[in-house]
Amino acid sequence: MGTSMTHTAQQPGQIPVVPVILSGGSGSRLWPVSRSSYPKQFWPLVTKHTMVQETALRSHGPGFSAPIVVCNNEHRFIMAEQLKEVGITQARILLEPVGRNSAPAIAAAALLAAETDPDAVLWVMAADAAMQKPENIAPALAIAAQVARAGRIVTFGMTPTKAETGYGYIEKGAALDGYAGAFSVAKFVEKPDAENATRMFESGRFLWNSGMFVFTARTMLAEMEKFEPAIIAAVTQAVRERRSDIDFERLDEAAFDACPDISIDYAVAERTTLMTVIPGDFGWSDVGSWDALWELSPKDSAGNVSIGDVFMHNTSGSYVRSDGVLTAVTGVEDLLVVVNDDAVLVTHRQHAQDVKAIVSLLKKAGRKEAASHTRCYRPWGFYESLIEGSRFQVKRIVVDPGGKLSLQKHYHRAEHWVVVEGTAQVTRNEEKILVRENESVYLPLGALHRLENPGRIPLTLIEVQSGPYLGEDDIVRVEDIYSRA
């Protein structure tokens, strides 16, 4: 993995800008690494940092307030942990109870910011985009903040490097008086076919739509009220009736569920007369496919990208990644090969966008690999399935220092825990048992139990489950420090 390309954008204006990070996508075109349970923004795909860490670091430091992060409930602990890993501890993490697209998410962030300052300038960005020239962001953001404070809505249009069919486009209009480098927006264009993409690229009037926006909370909320009052009504109630939970703020489920499902482009950007575009050369990519990652990654003399335990011979123009077993490739060109411990993807680079169709087929077939990895992350650590049989299952469980599983019981299975590293504090009904390395404990069906790591190193144990039903929904939580149901 390459070194970090993060450079904090310094001093975008006199008043701190509020970064807003939207983390709602599943990144299905990057399957099998990106899955809905652990999508691409949480993986270090371009640098040593994960994509959401890169995004947060880009807007961290002088000139910026603590970020507002909008994500779904399932990812809340992953998000909090990854932000803390890079020193971002004051983020306001706003939890969506259901997905309702970008317009309601942005409305929620704007309403939250407006509680403190209605004229706060917000910089909205996706959690999963790459910027290979971040040093160019600060000057563009400084102009954008000025334009936003004048009551307009700004988007950054990326200078195209080719006739790309995977991005939307923005046509520049007239230059904006008094703001060098800013233009009105003539129109937005959906993802074009190859012929129209070539025409727009050659005209020099069109920019790639980055999906980033800069505006004041007051301006955006007024425009949403004008065009989509149902969004404002539902989200205002959801924000007003939110509740705080550890590091998170939970939007009211009933109110947010009633909100229309619509993107910010359709809700506001394509309808308002306030749209402004600032061209930028940020080295931007939405990293929407494995082919895009091939383009972003350092290559050998044959144009190959190799990540993990990979050997290549007589191969060119290919991206080969293994997160597990030895992977050998020979006699091919322009292939994408991605190996996980439970799935393998092989496709031609020209068909990288078709990966989404494969994920849809897997979902229709009811394959759990479409959405979940064998490793499942929890607020206390993670577990991963090792062996599955008809009436038994073997898992590896890793509990972080100080981590504590819920006090729980099962109606359909018994469990046997064998500690292989660290020390476990086990509650079994009324007993408190200290279990050391190479020791084990048996938990009969129906026993009330809890696992804790009281030590300073990670606790690793092997769990053997046995019974007629071994699903994760056979958990009755009696008490949980992480406020899970």
UniProtKB/TrEMBL annotation:
The record's catalysed reaction(s) read:
alpha-D-mannose 1-phosphate + GTP + H(+) = GDP-alpha-D-mannose + diphosphate
Provide the MannoseP isomerase/GMP-like beta-helix domain boundaries: 314-360
Q: Which GO terms describe its biological process?
A: GDP-mannose biosynthetic process; polysaccharide biosynthetic process
Entry's Gene Ontology molecular function annotations: GTP binding; isomerase activity; mannose-1-phosphate guanylyltransferase (GTP) activity
The family database entries (Pfam families) matched by this protein are listed as:
ManC_GMP_beta-helix (PF22640), MannoseP_isomer (PF01050), NTP_transferase (PF00483)
Q: Which InterPro entries match?
A: GMPP_N (IPR049577), Man1P_GuaTrfase/Man6P_Isoase (IPR006375), Man6P_isomerase-2_C (IPR001538), ManC/GMP-like_b-helix (IPR054566), Mannose-6P_isomerase_type2 (IPR051161), NTP_transferase_dom (IPR005835), Nucleotide-diphossugar_trans (IPR029044), RmlC-like_jellyroll (IPR014710)
What Gene3D superfamilies does the record point to? Answer: Jelly Rolls, Spore Coat Polysaccharide Biosynthesis Protein SpsA, Chain A
Mannose-6-phosphate isomerase type II C-terminal domain segment(s): 366-480
Which residue range or ranges hold the Nucleotidyl transferase domain? 19-300
Q: Kindly state which keywords UniProt assigns to this record, in alphabetical order.
A: GTP-binding, Isomerase, Nucleotide-binding, Nucleotidyltransferase, Transferase
The protein's matches in NCBIfam families, at most eight in alphabetical order, are given as: GMP_PMI
Q: Give the family, as the similarity comment puts it.
A: Belongs to the mannose-6-phosphate isomerase type 2 family.
Protein name per its UniProtKB record: mannose-1-phosphate guanylyltransferase
Natural source organism = Komagataeibacter rhaeticus
